[in-house]
Amino acid sequence: MKDIKEYKTHTQQGILLNANEMSDNLSSSILKEIQEKIVNLDFNRYPDNDCIRLREAYSALLNVQIENVLAGNGSDQILGLLIGYFLKKGKTLLTLDPDFSMYDYYCGTYDANLLKYPTRDDGSFDVENFIRYAIDNKVDMILFSNPNNPTGFLLTNEEIKVLLKQLNTIPVVIDEAYAEFAKESATELIDQFDNLYITRTLSKAYALAGARVGFLVSNEKNIKQIHKANVPYVLNCVSQMIAMITLKHVEEFRNRIESIKKKRDELIHSNYKSIHIYDSQANFVKVKCKDLKKMYAYFDKNNVIVRKYEGKDYFRLTIGNDQEYKLIKNIFDQYEKEV
């Protein structure tokens, strides 16, 4: 029996600042367009297996070619596909500690070994030491989120280039679930490095967590190979249609993204003495404080749900809408006065 680490899904009641979702739903105009289009779908037919129109829309957004993009049922499904493609029993995956716990889950399902490279408190790490660690341990695949979940730390493209060059025989998968909130993306490197694979999603910045739409971005040769291993008809016609409509309204989401980044940076630079808010390039922040129990009591009182980590002295907080942000600021202000 394989030792599979179960992934714990998130609480879905209360003021949800625990799963890094977009706090507000799609706008009424987008919802209306979806309602008008859904009646024309052929539910009796299988969906477009190649997701042509969706890939056209997303590749245009990223300024890459359609041949550089593969669509999937959320980036989680793409991550599972890649781990299954590159790993098997006895093979080794290298990731960071801490990082997204779904990597542990998929590694377990394929009975592969998992190594975790410890990072600093802010999520940063020495790239050259990481490279040596990968070589010394003869790893078969590297996977990490960038920006990092849960710290928000961003490895720069220059650092990623160094990693890709020195580990050019090892597939390097970068999970860019939060890239829209960051200052740069590695997608501009896909034609420079054959070992680079990037996963993306519409769950975070584009408010489509419920539709489960994700992508793999890589060079054309890699995409052709991975496509052969992908599940047929992996993305249903409803999700494809919703995603295509949503991507027609990119400017609306850019405004939302900028608003979240502004609130995030304001919170990071708040002058709290008893609360440490780490720098972040994502739509969330890592937070430490002197008395977690007291902070959690404030959250409970206000029905706020944050991401807690068992045995850790920090929590992760999603940057929500304006109303939620004001509530968090009030909670932090009250906590600061009492501690």
Automatic annotation (TrEMBL):
Keyword Transcription: no
Keyword Transferase: yes
UniProt xrefs under InterPro entries: Aminotrans_II_pyridoxalP_BS (IPR001917), Aminotransferase_I/II_large (IPR004839), PyrdxlP-dep_Trfase (IPR015424), PyrdxlP-dep_Trfase_major (IPR015421), PyrdxlP-dep_Trfase_small (IPR015422)
Keyword set, alphabetical order: Aminotransferase, Pyridoxal phosphate, Transferase
The Aminotransferase class I/classII large domain, residue ranges: 14-324
Annotated PROSITE patterns: AA_TRANSFER_CLASS_2 (PS00599)
Pfam families named among the record's database cross-references: Aminotran_1_2
GO molecular function, one term: transaminase activity
Regions annotated as coiled coil: none
Co-factor requirement: pyridoxal 5'-phosphate
Family assignment from sequence similarity: Belongs to the class-II pyridoxal-phosphate-dependent aminotransferase family.
Protein name as catalogued: Aminotransferase class I/classII large domain-containing protein
Originating species: Faecalitalea cylindroides
